[in-house]
Amino acid sequence: ASQKTWNSVLFDQDTMGIHDESIVLRSGVKASKVQRKLWSPFVGLFANQLSCKTCSYKYPVKFDSFDTVSLSLSSSFQFASVALQGLIRNFMCSEVLESFQCSGCGRKDGENHKTRLLKKLSIGKLPQCLCFHINRTYWQNNGVPYKNNTFVTFSESLNTEPYLYTHNKVDHKIPRMSGLCSSQDISTEEQRTTPHS
């Protein structure tokens, strides 16, 4: 069977599955697994980058697909309520990795140095519908699960720009954050967000 072009499958829902091997791009190149998966309005890309704390060498960015951002609540129950923005910041915060051999430091003197690397997570591509999953289930030492009922507050708009890998001039403010699910074309300036637990 002849390969289907992008134009021929644009509105064919049966051929737009994330595992469809027949999808090709306009250039005629067969779509990669990540490209096929991105047809889903819930799928975006995380950008992971490592940088050396000593010589500032930056490793190539690694992109990983996601369909839900899983956020964690504190297991101590010390807060009556928390803000969604705070949970996102905790999820996106940088992490220091100890005792790693830096390629950049090794290029300078020809030796392998063990140093600290900074691991930074950001959003490389926003999905059409950004979904948050709030993990409320925790396990006690005796194996009994319990639910964290901390109230999560959020406003009607969410500025996603601080969490993006590439900052551009588009206003990434999400105008509404209500209902079970909403989506909008990715080419517009507005991105919908749906928190759920």
From TrEMBL:
SUPFAM superfamilies found in the cross-reference section: Cysteine proteinases
One Pfam family hit: UCH
Any one Gene Ontology cellular component term annotated for this protein: cytosol
Record key words, sorted: Hydrolase, Protease, Thiol protease, Ubl conjugation pathway
One Gene Ontology biological process: protein deubiquitination
Molecular-function GO terms, alphabetical: cysteine-type deubiquitinase activity
EC number: 3.4.19.12
Annotated ranges, domain USP: 1-197
Reaction(s) this enzyme catalyzes, per UniProt: Thiol-dependent hydrolysis of ester, thioester, amide, peptide and isopeptide bonds formed by the C-terminal Gly of ubiquitin (a 76-residue protein attached to proteins as an intracellular targeting signal)
First-tier enzyme category under EC: hydrolase
Tagged with keyword Protease: yes
Gene3D superfamilies for this protein: Cysteine proteinases (3.90.70.10)
Keyword ATP-binding included in the entry's annotation: no
InterPro entries in the record: Papain-like_cys_pep_sf, Peptidase_C19, Peptidase_C19_UCH, USP
The family this protein is said to belong to: Belongs to the peptidase C19 family.
Protein name: ubiquitinyl hydrolase 1
Naturally occurring in which organism (per UniProt): Paramuricea clavata (Red gorgonian)
